Amino acid sequence: MGRCFPGSVLAALIFTCSMLIPVSVLLTFTTIDSTWSSIEKRVSVPNVAARLQPIHVIEDVQAAVKMAGNMRMQPEKSRRIEFMLVTGERSVACGSSEGSYVMMMSYKNKIDYCNIHGCKVWYALEVWENGFTGTWARYPLLLKLMKANPKIQWFMWMDSDAIFTDLNFTIPIRTYEDWGKKMVVPGYWEKVYAENPDWISLNAGIFLMKNCEWSHKFLRSWMRYGDPSNLASSKMRLNSFLTRPKYWDPDDQSALVYLLNLNKTDSQANVYLESGYDLHGYWKFIVDNYENITNNDKSRPFVTHFCGCNFCGRKKISADCYGGFRRAFNFADNQLLSQVSLSHLSLSSPDPLLKATSAKTSPESP
Ligand code: MN
Fold it and tell me: At 360, which helix (H) or strand (E)?
C-alpha cells in the first residue's frame, strides 16, 4: 500500500505501490494556465535530501536557512500549531503475523512522535463512506474528522507503511501557515506543473492539510476521482499519465497530480510541494545508511516510507522490506530510548533486550 516517487521513472515502475480501487468521475474542469508569483524556487542548497533528489526552497534563502535551523527546535508554545495525525489500516486482519507486527510498530512510532510533539493520533480501521476503500478510505475520514474537530487547525495524513525516523523534527506548520498554504505534499513543483506531469511527481502517502473551507472543498473534488459511480470518466482522465499503467483503476495519487495540474492558479497559491526535507523519504535510499547518521545529525531523514512493501496485504513480506522496516523502527526507537540511556542491541535486533548506553553518545556507538 502506498505510492512512491523514486528518482527515476524506471524505479517507479518497478516499485509502484498503489492499492487500487475501482472508481470514477465526471467533472468539468477548466484548465487555467498562469504564471506563478512563486515563493518556491529552485536554489542549490546543500541538504541531506540533495543526495537523493532536487531541492527547492523559498525564495529568500536567508529565511530558508533560518527555517531549517528552527525546524529541529521546539517552537515557543504560543507559536506551535496543534494538529491531528491521522493514519489507518484495512478493516480485516493482515496477511501475515509479521505484517500485523509491523503495523503495531508503525502505530507505536506515531504515538511516540505525538507524545513528543503534542499531536493527537487517530487510527482508523474502518471504511467511513460506502465505496471509498483502500487508499481512498482516508479522504471521507479526513473530511469528517476535520468537520468534527473545528478547533484543530491542521491535520496530517500518514500511511501505515511510513514511520518517523527523526523524532525531534518539528514540522514547520507555522511557516506554511504564514505563507498562506492550505496543503503540504512531498513533491516537485516543476514536475507537478509540467506540461506532461507524471503520477509520481509527488507522493500522496503523507500530507498536511489546514482545517478550512478550501481543504474541505479540495477533499471533495479529490474524492470524486475515487467515487465508483465515476469510474469510466476518472479512468479516462488519469490515463493521460505517461508511465501510469493503463489497466489501473483510478488511484488517489494520480488524481492529486491531475487535479493540481488542472487548476494551476488555485493549486500554486494554496498547495506547497515540499522537497526541502524528507516528508516522504523513499526507504530504498535510506535504510542502509542509518549507521552513518549520528544521534544529533541534522541529516536524519524525517520520514522513511516503505511504499511498495504492502506489509499488511501480503501473505509473505519481502526480506528487504521487513529488514529495512526493523532498522528504521529501531533507529527511531533508539532516539526515544536514549532518554533513559538504553538502546536496541543493533538496528536489526528484534530482541526485547536493550543495552545501556551513555545518554551523550549516539545510539549506534559502542
Ligand atoms: Mn505508503
Answer: none
